[in-house]
Amino acid sequence: MKTITDLRPDEVTALLEQQLAGELSAKELEETGVVLQVGDGIARIYGLTEVEAGEMIEFASGTKGIVLNLEEDNVGAVIMGSSSTVHEGDRVKRLHRTASILVSEKMLGRVINPLGEPLDGKGPIEGPFFESPYERKAPGVIFRRPVHQPLQTGIKAIDAMIPIGRGQRELIIGDRSTGKTAIALDTIINQRENYEKGDPVYCIYVACGQKASTIAQTVSVLEKYGAMDYTIVVAASASDPAPLVFLAPFAGAAIGEYFRDSGRHALVVYDDLSKQAAAYREVSLLLRRPPGREAYPGDIFYLHSRLLERAAKIIDSDEVARQMNNLPESFKPIVKGGGSLTALPIIETQAGDVAAYIPTNVISITDGQIYLEPNLFNAGVRPAINVGISVSRVGGAAQIKPMKRVAGRLKLELAQYRELEAFAKFGSDLDPATLRQIERGRRLVELLKQPQYQTVKVEHQVASIFAGTRGLLDKLPVEKVREFEAQYIRFLEAAHRPLLDKIRQGQLDEAMEAELEKAAKEVLAGMGIKL
Amino acid sequence: MSPRTIAQRYAKALFELASKRGEIEKIYAEIEGLLTLYRESRLLRNLLESPIHRSQQKLGWLRPIFQERLSPLLWTFLQLLVRRGREALLNETCEAFIELYDAHQRRIRAFVRTAQPLSQEVRDRLSQRLKEIFSADSVILSEETESGLIGGFIVEVGTRAADLSVRGRLHEIQKKLLQASSI
After folding, report:
1. Catalytic residues of A, which ones?
2. Residue of A10, A95, A462, B77 with fewest CB within 10 Å of its CB?
3. Element (H, E) at A416
4. Are B166 and B87 within one domain?
5. B82 in the same domain as B124
6. CB of A109 within 8 A of CB of A228?
7. Residues 6+ apart with CB under 8 A from A88
8. CB B4 to CB A73 under 8 A?
9. Chain B contacts of A23, Cβ < 8 Å?
10. End of a domain among B49, B84, B103?
């Protein structure tokens, strides 16, 4: 009889080895590679002959990497994390999956890195997780529908003249410190209203190559205004390795797609893509891809176009949406139609040069741009939007009717004002009609000024702009315009709430206009102005 | 072109010529000898890799050593390498030749690491299994013991590897436990 006492330790080992030899199968014999060279966040690997581009690999230390280059006799990969843990001669394993991020609803309110790991010290992120690939083909034509719902930014100048629709891609472009991030943050803060109503627009703020202190400040602003409840911050700071910085926007898009494909609305801000382009250039040059214009690689346009194409408004039918192309396996049970992903990419220009390589690329990709000017900013026009060259190519369809009605006049009057403004500088000898136009323009510009973090509800925007374009403010001194606006809104809220509700629902007829006009006149009379 | 690719081209030419002349076995044995020499004689290595000396000079030094001892085909091949300035790739060329020869013989080379020396029985079973997996006729097994593996073995064949060691399994378990704690 065999008993346990008959066995000696070395025999056990021998028996186990025999069993393992029997267990050895072709599947167990994984394909591996050996690190030939490592440095600057890049590893060159010998072997891995069957690896796919974009596949995740794992180094001996457990650090992950993404394969970017397949060459004749080696594989180029970026290291996701510290390259000091990867050594020459290390074994590299394939993970047999395309690089992806694990998205969870619990990410809301958190600050994460592009790999989905928390950075805010609030403990691990809980599941359930959905695997969303960094690189995914954008939805095809039949799964989209034209933009038709507004995304209210809460900024008067934008919502009136450069309206943004859900699913749109609107570029925010301007020199350094002209208020680009401020516009994006205001837009995120303005989504609080939707969140409270139970129909949230989930926001993803991607900080790409920014100072860590700036990111911390942004997060604290979002927290202060209660915006973190529905916001995820994806942060890759300037001190992170270049691969992480260039991956950050893709992580943001992957998270946004989770909301989009589950039938909800999401807004993703890429702040900013010029730094991402620089990071991608760095990685590409290290991978020895040939440099092109300004040393950017040949596929820099594709980098941004494939990223921004993923912003989309999905068709309402759940049935059609379920057949969407390149749907990740984990999304399949939760797919719903009617979702949207709006993108607000940010580009920083150098000395107002919009004709540089990256700005022209992104301008041509997006559905419009908001152009911010330092001159306006310094003159106290904030937000410093240059209305003349800012456009929104599709958002008009998404504006509510009352806004369309009052904003049409606004654009026209401002255009005329800008034309005449040059004359006004010479002072004398202007005919009364011209003078009137200029005076009105000044008041409209004043009306569109708006302090940071103070977003305005759409019905209030309509009421204010109506007063401006109707010429009700012409007799009011310019410096009193903002005082009037505050009083007027307060008065309307107190005495005409039903009217505001109607405007909000998209109604504005002549009777209502008359009511607005009457209210404005009452407020003006209170300020001692008689029309 | 990378040095590896160049070496592969030369090796292939030599291999095809040798098989046409039916001298494969002989050339293979000589190549193995040459490789050992190259690896062990530092002087030979330095001489071949030296960028200072001209190929005529190098040939002058090599002739008395190799002309008599190598078959005419391999000696001509060596001369060709030196004249074309590829003598520094001798090592890679020899290795590429051996790879070609292995493929021709349907033979694989496996490297096994175990915690304790392999018993003949396990060795045979492992070879048998590897032959089946890679559909090879023979296996050249090189072995190494590494007590850190605790038990089981790691086997590598070319760029493919399987970690069936107790240490590897423990690492897997550790990773899974860590992952579970973060979910």
Report:
1. 393
2. A10
3. helix A401-424
4. no
5. no
6. yes
7. A35, A36, A37, A38
8. yes
9. 164
10. B103
Residues of B in contact with A31 (CB under 8 A): 159-160
* This prediction's pTM: 0.86
Sign of CA dihedral B42, B45, B50, B55: positive
Of A14, A28, A72, the CB nearest to B2: A72
| Residue A528 φ/ψ region, left for φ over 0, alpha for ψ in the -120 to 50 degree band, beta for the rest | left
Which parts of chain B register pLDDT below 50? 182-183
Question: Which residue from B121, B125, B159 is facing A49, i.e. has the nearest CB?
Answer: B159
Whether B37 and B96 map to the same domain: the answer is yes
A290 DSSP 8-state letter? P
Chain B: nearest CA to A71, how far in angstroms?
Answer: 11
B43 and B79 in a common domain: yes
Cβ contact B5–A73 (<8 Å): yes
Three-class secondary structure of residue A76 per DSSP:
strand
Q: Tell me the C-alpha distance between B5 and A467, whole Å.
A: 77
B65 and B82 share one domain: yes
- Predicted local confidence at residue B168, as pLDDT: 85
Nearest CA in chain A to B153: A17
Residues B143 and B66 in one domain: no
> Which of B49, B83, B103 lies at the terminal end of a domain, its last residue?
B103
b/e code B87-122 from CB counts within 10 Å (16+ = b): bbbbbbbbbbbbebbbeeeeebbbebbbbbebeeeb
Contacts for A147 with CB less than 8 Å, ≥ 6 apart: A165, A166, A167, A168, A313, A367, A394, A395, A397, A398
CA of B66 vs chain A CAs: smallest distance (Å): 32
Query: What's the total number of domains in chain B?
Result: 2
Min Cα distance B116 → chain A (Å) is 8
Range of the domain at B173: 108-182
* Mean pLDDT, range A218-235, rounded to an integer: 96
On whether the CB atoms of residues A394 and A146 are closer than 8 A, the answer is yes
Q: Is the ipTM of this complex over 0.85?
A: no
Identify the CATH number of the domain in which residue B26 sits. 1.10.520.20
Q: Do B159 and B80 have their domain in common?
A: no
- Say how far apart CA A518 and CA A522 lie, in whole Å: 6
Mean pLDDT across chain A, nearest whole number? 91
Q: Which residue of B has its CA nearest to A15?
A: B122
Indicate if B112 and B98 belong to the same structural domain. Answer: no
